[in-house]
Write a structure and sequence with these properties.
Helix Hairpins, 40% helix, alpha+beta, transport, nine-stranded mixed β-sheet, five-stranded antiparallel β-sheet
């Protein structure tokens, strides 16, 4: 078909150069000047190299799916969060089952354990028992009742609360205070507001009595940690009204302090897969009962509890759980001595609470649950940096005593009788101000037992953090076209020219082949006629 392919190829290349407009190529082929030909050759090679490099960078960037986070303000008023508070030093001797009795019982039951049968080292078992004898182990043996009226174990008394609107006028009788159970603090409180007024509340101030009068020595083991260490004060958490509180992330506030938390409501939105490596979860609630807002951390903890419940028939005290899970576990926390069959029939029988503890310790969070729980596509959070100051100042303490302590019905109020004597001396003129202040400085009862918390919105708007794609398809096409035009002068019309050239060549080849076939047939006809 092509008797001389080199001649054919040269002719087609000349046609391509004449037909398709690619800068510099025609100069190389047509120019008779060696310098001009060489200059254009070097230029085309360099530009082609830069074109390939920039194109690869552009493709890599686009297919890595980058995104930017855009911050904007909303005109809507922020929604006041839910506040959860717990006493860092809760009451231990409760429900006719004291902490000392619990520790003694654990030591007695575990004194003759068969570690070979348990398939666990003695050091590992000692670590498990050490955790069990901490307050979180003791409280796990008390009734898990979220809502109770019995105040005998209270260590948090809200003696005063002030609620303000955006004009800093008081709103009265609007807050809802609810007791909740927590494995590390036993009884905590949440302060919330009805849905219809949440956007009207701008600030809340609380004065809290801690009742830190103990007449016993702490019998358990001690260890540093988020839930193991103990101090005088409160654990405070600001969170979304629909979110289950995670007290591990709360702020510790020491007694004798006034703490002010400046809050900022943030609405976070994320892009789905492929911008997020594993995607994001586009749902509002953690389960079908719509009992709590979805979050990655809550999903992981519920997943761990689900596996723990299946394998160990109890719930771990270190993670949050649903009411359904608590019911399925028969309100049993792993390590519950009082509910397990702890009296062995013979020396070879392992106590049930030990088996449950070992089982719960074997659950691996990262391997089983972390990959299943994704970040939320829509998430609400509250940034709440805090500042503290010593409180109340000595000159204010007699007024404080008269306002909150004198003639009140809170437990152990008689412990503050020294302030009553100083108040009488001040009113009767028996002592001057300097003498009274000097004596007040030596008294720490108010500072050891009271805390003031102030929660206030820093701004009257919501901050929205929205993820947006950094390179859309339109921007990618524009950038790619600009790169081609910059380095080689190639435009979209150039591609049409190339398509046109290819089409014409195909048609030309087809026509040449057809002419050759017709010529062959005509030759055969002539030969037959001659015969």
């Amino acid at each position: 078909m092509f008797p001389n392919f080199s001649i054919f190829a040269k002719r087609k290349c000349e046609q391509f150069i004449d037909t398709v407009n690619i800068r510099g190529v025609d100069k190389i082929v047509k120019s008779q000047n060696v310098f001009i030909t060489g200059s254009w050759t070097v230029g085309v090679i360099l530009c082609s190299g830069f074109l390939l490099w920039q194109t690869s960078v552009l493709f890599n960037r686009y297919f890595s799916y980058p995104y930017n986070t855009v911050v904007r303000k909303s005109e809507n008023k922020p929604i006041f969060p839910k506040i959860t508070i717990c006493n860092l030093n809760p009451k231990y001797n409760q429900h006719n089952y004291s902490y000392t009795e619990f520790v003694n019982q654990v030591e007695k039951i575990t004194s003759k354990l068969d570690y070979e049968k348990l398939n666990i080292t003695k050091d590992k078992m000692a670590d498990i028992l050490n955790k069990l004898q901490k307050p979180i182990g003791y409280f796990s043996n008390l009734p898990v009742v979220p809502y109770v009226n019995d105040s005998s174990y209270d260590r948090v008394f809200i003696v005063d609360q002030s609620v303000f609107d955006w004009n800093f006028k008081k709103l009265s009788g609007k807050e809802v205070i609810t007791p909740i159970w927590h494995p590390a603090y036993y009884r905590c409180y949440t302060i919330s507001f009805p849905t219809e007024i949440r956007s009207s509340v701008s600030a809340v101030s609380l004065v809290i009595y801690l009742n830190n009068f103990g007449d016993y020595i702490y019998p358990g083991t001690y260890g540093a940690g988020f839930t193991y260490s103990r101090a005088n004060g409160l654990k405070v958490l600001v969170h979304d009204p629909g979110e289950d509180p995670d007290m591990k992330t709360g702020v510790s506030v020491g007694s004798g302090c006034e703490m002010s938390l400046k809050m900022q409501m943030v609405n976070r939105s994320r892009l789905p897969y492929p911008y997020q490596k594993n995607g994001c979860k586009d749902k509002n609630h953690i389960n079908l009962t719509r009992s709590g807002f979805y979050s990655k951390s809550l999903c992981v903890e519920h997943c761990v509890q689900r596996i723990t419940l299946q394998k160990c028939r109890c719930l771990s005290s270190g993670y949050r759980f649903t009411s359904e899970q608590l019911k399925k576990a028969n309100e049993t926390i792993c390590g519950n001595v009082t509910k397990s069959n702890f009296q062995p029939v013979n020396n070879n029988e392992t106590p049930q609470f030990i088996s449950q503890l070992i089982c719960s310790e074997s659950i691996k969070v990262d391997d089983l649950c972390a990959s299943k729980c994704l970040d939320s596509c829509q998430e609400i959070s509250y940034h709440s940096p805090g500042q503290t100051a010593p409180w109340p100042e000595e000159s204010q303490q007699l007024a404080f005593y008269k306002r909150y302590i004198y003639n009140s019905l809170y437990p152990n109020i008689d412990k503050f009788d020294k302030y009553k004597e100083l108040q009488a001396s001040f009113v009767g003129g028996l002592k001057n101000d300097s003498q009274i202040i000097r004596e007040l400085k030596s008294l720490d009862l108010i500072r050891e037992n009271f805390v003031q918390l102030n929660f206030i919105f820093e701004n009257d708007y919501i901050l929205h953090y929205n993820d947006v794609e950094a390179m859309s398809l339109t921007l990618f096409i524009s950038s790619f076209g600009g790169t081609l035009s910059l380095w080689m002068g190639i435009t979209a019309m150039t591609f049409i020219e190339i398509i046109e050239f290819i089409y014409l060549q195909v048609v030309s080849i087809f026509l040449e082949k057809k002419v050759e076939n017709n010529s062959g047939k005509d030759g055969e006809v002539i030969e037959k006629d001659e015969e």
